[in-house]
Structure formats: structure tokens, C-alpha cells
Amino acid sequence: MTLLRTILGELIGLFVDDGNLAILCVALIAIATALAKLVPGSGIAAVVVLLVGCPALLCFNVYRGTRKR
């Protein structure tokens, strides 16, 4: 049972290394999707949210990672 738990943990770790970053990325995508679907003619705004938000999340995560060490 421990071996199976270890294997599953490693497999999940391959896809989601930092849970906080993954949750923030999903939230950003949800915000951009809601903006595009709910506000007529806001497709460009949704693209801008993604183009600005993704690098901002990455920079925030790197900054937070360096502060922990």
C-alpha cells in the first residue's frame, strides 16, 4: 500500500509541482473565460488578462520560491 501511495504521489508531482501555482492558474483561466462569456465583445480583454496574468503568476511564484530559501 505504501508503494502504491508513493507511486501515485510521484505521478501527481509530475503534473502539479506547486499546488498554489496550479490553483492560481486555474483561477486565472476561469476569470478569463467568465470575462469572455459574460461580457459581450470582451474577447480581447480576456486575452489581455491571460497575457498579463500568466507571466505575473510565474514571477510571483518565482519570487515566493526565493523568499522561502
What does it look like?
- With 69 residues, this protein is an all-alpha fold.
- The chain has one domain.
- It contains three helices and no strands.
- Helix 2 (19-38) packs antiparallel against helix 3 (43-68).
- The longest helix has 26 residues, at 43-68.
- The chain is elongated.
Distance between the termini: 33 Å
Order of helices and strands: HHH
Give the low-confidence spans. none
Q: Give the strand content.
A: under 5%
Radius of gyration: 16 Å
Largest sheet: none
Mean pLDDT: 87
Q: With helices defined by DSSP (H or I, 4 residues minimum), what is the helix count?
A: 3
Shape: elongated
Supply the number of structural domains. 1
Helix content: over 70%
Helix/sheet category: mainly alpha
Compute the number of strand runs: 0
Structural features:
elongated; mainly alpha; 3 helices; 69 residues
Describe the protein's topology.
Layout: H1 2-15, H2 19-38, H3 43-68
Overview in brief:
By secondary structure, the chain is mainly α.
